[in-house]
Amino acid sequence: MAMKNKITFGSFEASCITITLITTQLFLNLPRAMMEVAWTAAWLLTAYVSVIALLLFFIIDRLYRPFEGKDLLDLGEHIGGNIGRIIVGIIVLLFLIYITPVILREFSENMKIIALTRSPLSFVLLFFLTGMIIASYAGLESIVRLSAIIVPIIAVGYLMIITGSLRYIDFSRITPWLGSGPYEIFVKGAPRISVFAGIILVYFLYPFIRTKKNFTTVGYASVVFSGLFFFIGVLIFSLIFQYPTGTESFLPIYELARLVEYGRFFQRLESMFVIIWVASALLHLSILLFLIAYVFKKTFKLKYYKPLIIPFSIIIFSLAIFSHNLLSAIELEKHFRTFAWMVTFLLPIVLLIIARFVKQPAKKEGES
Amino acid sequence: MKNFLENLLLFKEPKQTEKFILKENKQDTEKDSEKASNKNPSQKSNKSKEKDGDTFLDKILGSNQGDDEQEPGAEKKEEKISKKLSTNLKYMKKVYSIPKNGDIVLRAFDIVVKDKTIPAFILFYDGMTDREVINNYILTPLMLLSNLDIKGNERKIIDYIKNHILPQSQLNETSEYTSVIDEINFGGCGIFIDGIDVAFAADVKGWEHRNVERPNSEQVLRGPQEGFTEILRVNTALVRKILKDEKLIVEDVIIGKRSKTPCSMLYLRDITNESLVEEMRRRLESIKIDYLIDSGELEQLLEESSLSVVPQLMATERPDMVAAHIADGKIGVIVHGSPFVLLAPVTLVDLLQSPEDAYMRLPYAHLLRFVRFLGIFFSLLLPGLYIAITSFHQEMIPTDLVFSIEASREVVPFPSVVELLLMEVMFELIREAGIRIPGPIGPTLGIIGALILGQAAVEASIVSPILIIIVAITGIGSFAVPNYSLGLSFRVLRFGYIFLGAMAGFLGITLGLFIQGILFVNSKSFGVPVTIPTGPKTATSFSNNRLIRLPLWKQERRADYLNTQDDTKQPKISRKWTEDNKKRKGDGDEE
Amino acid sequence: MNKKIVFLILVILSSALLTSCFDSKEIDEKAYIIALGLDKGKNNYLNMTLQLALPNKITSGEGESTSTTTVETPTLYAGLNMINTYISKEVDFTHCKVVVFSKELAQEGIHDYIHAMIRGREFRGSMFVAVSTGTAEEFIENATPILEMNPAKSYEMNFRSYEYTGFTGDTTLTNFYMLAECSCRQAFATLVGVNPYEDSDEFDPKNSTFREKGHDRPLEGDFYAGKIPKVYGTKSEVMGIAAFDGGRMVGEFDGQEALFHQMLYGTYQSSYISIPDPKNPDAFVILNVNQGRKPTHHVEMINDAPINSAKVQLEADILSIQSGFNYENTDNIQILENAAEEHIKKGMLRFLNKTRPMHADLCGFGRDLKMKYLLWEEWEKVHWLKKYAESKFNVDVEVKIRRPGLMVRSAPAKGSEGDVMK
Q1: Which chain A residues touch B14 with a CB distance below 8 Å?
Q2: Which residue out of B8, B15, B400, B406 would a mutagenesis test of the C interface target, given it has the greatest number of C Cβ atoms within 10 Å?
Q3: Which has the least CB within 10 A, B219, B266, B290, B359?
Q4: Average pLDDT over every residue of B140-169
Q5: Which of A44, A174, A175, A251 to mutate to test the interface with C (most CBs of C within 10 A)?
Q6: C-beta neighbour count of B153 within 10 angstroms
Q7: Closest chain B CA to residue C152
Q8: Of A348-357, B115-124, B431-440, C408-417, which one has max mean pLDDT?
Q9: A168 vs C374: CB contact, 8 Å cut-off?
């Protein structure tokens, strides 16, 4: 049952939104999390994880060949009809509903720490929520188009932070070269591919970007560019903050931004950084909220997704204020980062392999 | 109340409406599907497009046939002109409420033919017609005529009068009252002659009007200095003067039940996307309104969303702009009585461009463009940023500046938001009043008012001097927006940013920018997203617009989003002489 | 539809009015601190001194531009609360330019204060960390700007003077924090003090370090802050650095040692250096010395004891040759270069040997050793900072004199008794 989509967009837009979904955690705690595992070799772990993600995507891309224009739900339906679709849908929904409040909470809390120390949390949450709801109402097309405009700006701002803090780098800080040791990095660090959890978006964008070629382009571009951004961020961060010190900092990229200064006049520009930071958070959260409503709609074959936005945003809001403090929210994210790869990489691979076996009977249905 | 709440909270199924999307025309899709190229997102899905394309073509064909059969206004009344002059006279007197009506002139006379006198009358509006023309070229030939040899049938007489007697370039022969009435209403002269069942309508327009002058609102230093006037035909001529191409079509549409305002739709037959023309025609023809005075009203009637933050049609006073855009594949709409011509579809980049961008040499054009963008940035965000920074992010202000701001604010009684709003409202007031103040004192009074007010306010410690600077820069910046309508939009949005900045600093500002971005990417002008070169990325996005402009000889293709019938603007090598130069040099080397 | 929009707008507006502006604080509702001083209290843990900027005075240019207040308190933020009770505006650290610890407090350890400053969002990373030879209170009380009305600017310019004197170092909070937690280097802070002299007759050579260094007379850098023989003008002084080990101050270095530290550390830019004239021990040659290339370090472990070698490459221009000897030719310039190399090398070795018992690897020799390890655990086992005390030092100084200034030879002054030369 191929969806007849009127909305289509190009691979550039799709890559931009996927990159946002993947890389936003860079602004949260990714460099620190990497450093906690690999110590001084955090950059190595990042590169290693990116390569694994690339390989996994290569496999998925190969397996996806016969199923052009189908997202995970279509695949579920292809395998097991309604039941298959609903199972896949519920897994993905749980996955999304788990992470969205956590991210929302973290961004709002961080906002409170770095700028709005006295505002109540719900006030800050409301700001993010407003943006999310408006964007979700405007629909996928608008979010994706906006991302094509915003993401390059965010990238430029991010690189400005990186270049601004370059004068503090010292190569001895990433030595000893292997940090916590090869076993820690290459075996225990492998589940860290979950940092690419956002790639799940590509499987759902497939019906909108339509062609196989676009899917491949978007997937590779997202993984490569996200990996590059991760790598640059983690490398520069560990070149500036040596191993034990770096694990202290709560918002690594923000700490880098604090270092940016040009002479006596331009100091403490980190507040400007708040702009690109909030923009990427809003984009990230909007697409997540939209995705929740969209997946729900598609899973249960509803006609409209818009009425779902408000209920889901209320659920997300309540879940976001559920954890007692920021640290427990971070703990939740840590758990997420250890199992997320199962949904983003394992689930599609399993689905695709099974789908290959049941290809014959369902083919006609797929074409209708 | 219960109903209201229900409406508010419960979801209502939206009505299924198909919105116009600018798609590729038939030839294009065929060409492209052969190539199966992936140049741009809108071309991605050739398969389904073809289907849609067919239906569109059908629509076009269908309505075109309809157009041929009926002429505008013909359907209203079916009354035919009678052979009897007295009937006609009675009818016209009734229509024009003669003698109640003061400025209509009914002149009855006789045409003497040999021994027979044929009564006739002419009818025209005094003041809208040229009396000389009527006296010399209508009354004189008819009244002083003799030897009219009437033989054969009635048709011959009509032809004879038309072909030999009335030396008029535009003489319509009609058998219906409505069309002759329309002509008279628009400065024509109706001629009724006894014994024939047609009337003539001669074009003798001659009302007072403004000459072609410099455009008031869009002045440039370099480039043509002509602006449109209020006369439709003068305006079309101004465009035709630039685009001397027989493929430039000027399609007339009459809008308004009472005003019957003639409007013209201008496009290039072999460039502009057919479905776009069809859509514009459809919209124009479907407008049912009492009166239409200015193109500003037409703009509101044509746009898709009335609350959108971006203008969806561009209004310009400059014939060169209109010609350039039409040549690029857009449609112009001229309204009689308005010196502003509408252009569609329009993107944000078009609205931020000044005609000088194209006329200036590349480096200067870029300097001007960047200064303009800076001005726009200031006009939109500066007050909001000021509030956000001074009340939330003081650490990023340089220490020396913090001290001077603090010292200057020490004696001011208001919080800075109130202070800022006060000054902004003041400035808007001066600007609004400045337009209304009559005559040459207007601008002077505005400036003096601003200066004196500003100075006095600072001296009375009502506002701080830093704030005056902020408001002044904002004001100056807002004049840098080339499009008046967009400038107004930014003026309104600015207040939103002040509130958001005062509420939550940069978080608020960013939320504002995000929402504005969503609104921008969501708005479409005739099926074209207004943020097009970046919003949805298109193939030729770098060809002309966006932040940088390529050299003129490099602008080889038309904007991709317009899906024009002919994509190329100029050949790959548009400066032939560079090739010649190379050849010449080669020859020299050989010798 | 319209009703809906109106309702939404009302909701948004009312929520905006109800919640609005929790954090919003006008600039003129805050009192900006430009210097923070921390001393050991008499009865409590801390004696906290704040120097507040008085913006009205700064812009009008009349009267004192700062106001100082001191309070005895258990902790930093407790003190802040106490001060807020009697200062009309809310005290704000965002524009604090310098934090001064007294020597006594620094010797007990200041890392918890540094952590508090890094943790809070108010303190800026470019704030300078200083140790006062006397009390911090005294220093801040006496730090009155002379050349400018703006005390913040005065601090910034003064603490950045190392760029052209070399007598202190880049001791911003960020730098201090990162060095203090580094496993291969040690942190240092600027040494500040208050000048005791009222009259130039009181100048006492005992306050200089020239004797222990073997100089004949005090050279320009042979002083600690607060000991410079000078009168009039501001009483506050900035000279020398204080070395830290594990957040505790372990020693102080005078101006010249700070200069050698910078040369070895790699942050040296340029300054004037007086070299005793090799031909005439009574006279000086004055050079304007720049760092030619960044210094390189090399560490070798022999019998579990490190041998640290450094190579320093300097370039110099001649500013003055008091003896009038014609050094300005290709043969003689060698003599001068060797003398300069010898002078600098001697000073450096002295400086390095002084750091050794303090466990203060100020110059970052450990970096080189650290780069040779593959695993963090192995590197940890080295215990570099402990091992540093067993180091031996090799310094290779290379001075290249590039330009003689505007003169290529010095002709003697003609007098009745013939040529006059020193």
Answers
A1: 304
A2: B406
A3: B290
A4: 72
A5: A175
A6: 8
A7: B399
A8: A348-357
A9: no
d(CA A22, CA B470): 39
In the predicted model, is pLDDT for residue B362 greater than 90?
no
Examine the domain organization and report whether B324 and B413 are in the same domain.
no
Considering the domain architecture, whether residues B251 and B340 belong to the same structural domain is answered as: yes
Query: Residue A249: which pLDDT band, with cuts at 50, 70 and 90?
Result: confident
Is C88 touching B (CB cutoff 8 A)?
no
Q: Which chain C residue is nearest to residue B8, measuring alpha carbons?
A: C4
Q: Is B11 on the interface with C (CB under 8 A)?
A: no
Q: Which residues of C touch A267 (CB under 8 A)?
A: 124, 126
A178 touching C (Cβ < 8 Å) = yes
Would the pLDDT of B402 be above 80?
Answer: yes
In sequence order, what are the residues at sequence separation of 6 or more whose Cβ sits closer than 8 angstroms to the Cβ of residue B485? Answer: B311, B314, B315, B351
Chain C nearest CA to A177, separation (Å): 5
What does R_g of chain A's alpha carbons equal in angstroms? 20
Choice among B418-432, B446-460, C393-407 with the minimum mean pLDDT: B446-460
Statement to judge: residues B154 and B262 lie in one domain: no
DSSP symbols for B308-319 = -SS-SSEEES-H
Q: What's the distance, CA C375 to chain centroid?
A: 34
Element (H, E) at C194: strand C188-194
Band of pLDDT at residue B35, cut at 50, 70 and 90: very low
B403-452 per-position pLDDT tens digit: 999 988 888 888 888 889 988 888 888 888 877 877 777 667 766 776 77
Chain B interface disruption, residue of A3, A4, A7, A8, most B CBs within 10 A: A8
Which of A129, A242, A260, A273 is the mutation pick for testing C, counting most C CBs within 10 A?
A242
Q: Token pair for residue B146?
A: 């003799």
Mean pLDDT over residues A99-104, rounded?
Answer: 92
Give the chain B residue whose CA is nearest to the CA of C65.
B403
Report yes or no on B491 lying in a domain.
Answer: yes
All domains of chain A, ordered by start, with CATH? 11-363 (1.10.4160.10)
Note whether A10 contacts B534, CB cutoff 8 Å. Answer: no
First vs last C-alpha separation in chain A = 6
* Closest chain B residue to the Cα of C16, Cα to Cα: B503
pTM of the model: 0.87
pLDDT computed for residue B186 by the predictor:
85
The tens digit of pLDDT for each residue in A50-81 reads 999 999 999 999 988 888 888 888 888 888 88
C20–B503: do the CB atoms touch at under 8 Å? yes
Q: How far is A357 from chain C (nearest CA, A)?
A: 47
Residue with tokens 């608020």: B508
Judge if B521 and B381 occupy the same domain: yes
C152/chain A closest Cα distance in angstroms: 11
Determine whether the interchain pair A127/B45 forms a contact, defined as Cβ–Cβ distance below 8 Å. Answer: no
- Distance from the Cα of A249 to chain C's closest Cα (Å) equals 9
The single residue listed with the structure tokens 């802070």 is C189
User: Domain span at residue B182?
Assistant: 85-203
Q: Which CATH superfamily is domain C269-422 in?
A: Nutrient germinant receptor protein C, domain 3 (3.30.300.210)
* Mean pLDDT lowest among B205-209, C246-250, C381-385: B205-209
| Cβ-count burial B526-551 (b if 16+ within 10 Å, e if not) | bbbbbbbbbbbbbbbbebbbeeebee
Say whether A211 and B517 touch across the interface (CB within 8 A).
no
Q: Specify the number of domains making up chain B.
A: 3
φ/ψ (deg, to 5) at C152: -65, -45
Contact B373, C19 (CB under 8 A): no
Residue B225 lies in a domain: no
A306 in contact with chain C, both atoms CB, cutoff 8 A: no
Q: Where are the domains of chain C?
A: 26-262, 269-422
Q: Report the distance separating Cα B455 and Cα B476, nearest Å.
A: 18
- The CA–CA distances, whole Å, from A154 to A27, A145, A159, A280, A315 equal 11, 15, 9, 7, 29
